């Protein structure tokens, strides 16, 4: 919980320009659906958030 609050606080500071020029975070995601002959159907989801800090 504390890590989440710190992360959101860092995003807020970066977004409002308190530590320099405002930085826009990059968000990407992917989803994979497949069929495996051994175990049947499967899904894989990935979400990435990148905030350049320098």
Task: Describe the SSE topology.
Elements: H1 2-16, E1 26-36, E2 40-50
Antiparallel strand pairs: 1-2
Descriptive overview:
The structure is a single chain. By secondary structure, the chain is an alpha+beta fold. The chain has a domain at 23-54. 28% of the residues lie in helices and 41% in strands. It has one helix at residues 2-16; strands spanning 26-36, 40-50. It has a two-stranded antiparallel ribbon with strand order 1-2. Strand 1 (26-36) and strand 2 form a beta hairpin. The two termini are 26 Å apart.
Summarize the structure.
The protein is of the alpha+beta class. The protein is built from one helix and two strands, in the order αββ.
Features:
single chain; 54 residues; alpha+beta; 1 helix
- Radius of gyration from CA coordinates: 17 Å
Mean pLDDT across the residues is 81
Shape: elongated
Question: Structural class from helices and strands?
Answer: alpha+beta
The largest beta-sheet arranges its strands as 1-2
Low-confidence stretches: none
**Termini separation (Å)?**
26 Å
**% residues in beta strands:** 35-45%
Helix content: 25-40%
Number of strands: 2
Order of helices and strands: HEE
Major β-sheet annotation? 2 strands, antiparallel
What count of helical segments does DSSP give? 1
